[in-house]
Design goal:
- The complex is a heterodimer of chains A (247) and B (204).
- Chain A contains five helices and eight strands; from the N terminus they run βββββαααβββαα.
- Chain A is of the alpha+beta class.
- In chain A, helix 2 packs antiparallel against helix 3.
- The longest helix of chain A has 25 residues.
- Chain B is α/β, with parallel strands linked by helices.
- Chain B has two domains: 47 residues, Helicase, Ruva Protein, domain 3 (Orthogonal Bundle), CATH 1.10.8; 98 residues, Dna Topoisomerase Vi A Subunit, Chain: A, domain 2 (3-Layer(aba) Sandwich), CATH 3.40.1360.10.
- In chain B, helix 1 packs across helix 2.
- The chains are: A alpha+beta (247), B alpha/beta (204).
- The interface between A and B is medium-sized, with 29 and 22 residues.
Chain lengths: 247, 204
C-alpha cells in the first residue's frame, strides 16, 4: 500500500519528437506513436485533436520536428499529450513527392524498429539527419539512395546490421577485393562452405554498403538503391517476425 | 432502468458524432413522447437513406438516387450553369461544403475521399486517379484547383495530382494558404507564416 507521502506523482516531459503514427480514437481523440529525443518511442493520447477547429492549438504533423509536452501517470502505459508545436519545419521536403515518400518509409521503419520506452539517441540522430538531408537545398543523394543508407544504419543501430566483413555463419573473413555471396535473410555475407547466398556482391558495392552504413551520404549508387531497399525490408521481415514470435 | 428497446435506441443515438450518452438519452426521451407522425416520418427518412442517397458517379459528393438504372448525379454536377472548365479537387465532402459556403467558386468538384499518406503507406494506387483523369478529359476541364488540406498528407496528395494531371495539358493550381482573416500573426505557426510570405501579393 502506498503511503500518500511516498506515492509517485505525475511526471511531465518536454522534449522534441517526431510523429510516427496517428490513429483516430473515438470521435475527436487520437492515439499517437511518437519518437521522442529523450524518451524513445512512446504512445500518447491526444485529446480533442481531431475535432474541427478554426485554429490549431495542438499542431501534430509528421515529417516536421515537433516540440511536445507529455504527462506520464504512474502505472499508466499511455502518456497524455498536453501541448505540441512545430519546432523544425522542413519546407523543402514536403514539396517533393519522392522525398516525402522516402521520409514516410523511413519513419515507418523507425516505428517498427525502435523499442518502446527506451531512449534511442542513435535512432533519433539517424532519422533526424536523414530528414534534414531530404530537406536540404542540394541533397547529396537521391531520396531512394538516402533511404537505403538509412535502412542500413537503422539495422546497425538496433543490432540487426548486415555482416559485410566476413561470413555471418562461421565468421570467416572475406578478402577486401573479392566478390562475396550475400543473403539478406541470413544477415550478410555467407561463405561457400556455409552454403553461400543467392546474390553475389561485387567488392565495390560491398565497400559502398559499408561506407553508407558508416554515414557517408551519397555512397550508395542510385542504381543499387532499390536492391538495398529490398534487402533492408527482407531483414526487417526476418528480425521482426522472430521478435514477434519471441514476444 | 430503461426498457430494452429504449436502451438500445440510446446506444444507437450515442454513436452519432457529437452526441454523448446524456444527449442521446434526451433525444430518446423526446422521441418517445413526440407526435407519432413525426417519429414515423423520421424513422422512414433514416431507413431510406442508404437506398436513396449514393455518391455522385461523377464527383463523389452525395446524390439522390432517382432510379435504379440511372447513375446518381449530385445537384452540382447536374447544374448546367456551373463552369465545366474548372474542377476543384477536395479531400472530403466537408471541404466541398466549406468552399460552396464561401460562394467564391462556380466550377465543379471532385471528392477524393482519401489522401496520400507517406506515414501510413497510403500510396497512389489507393486514390481514384483514373476517375479524376477521366473526369478531366470528358468534361474538357481547363483548370484543376487542388484544395486538399494544408497538411503533409494534403500537400503530398496535391504534388501527386499535379504530376498526374499536367501531362493532360490542363492547368493545375493549388489554393493559397496563409494567415486566416481575423487571425493574429503572432500565433500563426511557422509553415503558415512562411507560405503567407511566399504567396505575398503586390498592392496595386
Amino acid at each position: 500500500m502506498n503511503h500518500p507521502r511516498t506515492r509517485r506523482l505525475k511526471v511531465s516531459h518536454r522534449t522534441e519528437a517526431l510523429l510516427l503514427r496517428q490513429v483516430p480514437y473515438g470521435e475527436a481523440d487520437a492515439i499517437l506513436t511518437l519518437l521522442c529525443r529523450d524518451l524513445g518511442k512512446v504512445s500518447a493520447v491526444a485529446r480533442g485533436v481531431l475535432r474541427p477547429r478554426p485554429r490549431a492549438t495542438v499542431l501534430l504533423e509528421p515529417i516536421h520536428r515537433l516540440w511536445v509536452h507529455l504527462d506520464e501517470s504512474p502505472g499508466v502505459e499511455m502518456m497524455v499529450l498536453r501541448e505540441s508545436r512545430l519546432e523544425g519545419v522542413r519546407h523543402r521536403l514536403v514539396r517533393r513527392l519522392d522525398a516525402l515518400d522516402a521520409a514516410g518509409q523511413g519513419l515507418r521503419w523507425v516505428r517498427a524498429l525502435a523499442p518502446p520506452r527506451a531512449p534511442e539517441p542513435t535512432i533519433w540522430l539517424e532519422i533526424e539527419a536523414f530528414l534534414e538531408g531530404l530537406d536540404g537545398e542540394t541533397p547529396a543523394a537521391s531520396p531512394r539512395s538516402s533511404l537505403a543508407a538509412l535502412g542500413l544504419r537503422l539495422l546497425r543501430a538496433v543490432g540487426y546490421g548486415f555482416e559485410l566483413e566476413g561470413c555471418v555463419r562461421c565468421g570467416k573473413p572475406c578478402p577486401q577485393e573479392a566478390s562475396a555471396r550475400f543473403d539478406a535473410k541470413q544477415g550478410g555475407l555467407v561463405c561457400q562452405a556455409c552454403g553461400g547466398g543467392p546474390l553475389v556482391l561485387r567488392p565495390e558495392l560491398r565497400h559502398a554498403l559499408v561506407r553508407a552504413e558508416q554515414g557517408e551520404d551519397g555512397a550508395l549508387p542510385a542504381v543499387e538503391a532499390e536492391a538495398v531497399l529490398d534487402w533492408v525490408d527482407l531483414a526487417l521481415v526476418v528480425h521482426l517476425s522472430v521478435g514477434e514470435q519471441r514476444a | 432502468m430503461f426498457p430494452p428497446s429504449l436502451r438500445s435506441l440510446i446506444e444507437g443515438l450515442a454513436r452519432l458524432p457529437g452526441v454523448g450518452e446524456k444527449t442521446a438519452t434526451r433525444f430518446a426521451l423526446f422521441l418517445v413522447t413526440a407526435e407519432e407522425d413525426y417519429v414515423r416520418l423520421l424513422g422512414e427518412q433514416i431507413q431510406g437513406l442508404s437506398s436513396s442517397i449514393r455518391p455522385c458517379h461523377r464527383c463523389g459528393f452525395l446524390a439522390q438516387v432517382r432510379s435504379p438504372d440511372e447513375p446518381p448525379l449530385c445537384s452540382i454536377c447536374a447544374d448546367n450553369h456551373r463552369d465545366r472548365s474548372q474542377l476543384c479537387v477536395v479531400g472530403r465532402m466537408q471541404d466541398l461544403l466549406a468552399i460552396e459556403r464561401s460562394g467564391a467558386f462556380r466550377g465543379r468538384y471532385f471528392v477524393l475521399s482519401k489522401l496520400l499518406s507517406p506515414l501510413d503507406g497510403v500510396g497512389p494506387a489507393d486514390l481514384p486517379l483514373e476517375a479524376l483523369a477521366r473526369r478531366v478529359h470528358e468534361d474538357g476541364v481547363r483548370e484543376v484547383i487542388l484544395a486538399t488540406p494544408p497538411t503533409v498528407d494534403g500537400e503530398a496528395t496535391a504534388l501527386l495530382l499535379a504530376r498526374e494531371l499536367r501531362p493532360q495539358g490542363v492547368r493545375v493550381s493549388r489554393i493559397a494558404s496563409g494567415v486566416p482573416h481575423g487571425g493574429d500573426i503572432e500565433y500563426a505557426d511557422q509553415i503558415t507564416l512562411g507560405r503567407a510570405l511566399e504567396g505575398r501579393q503586390l498592392i496595386e
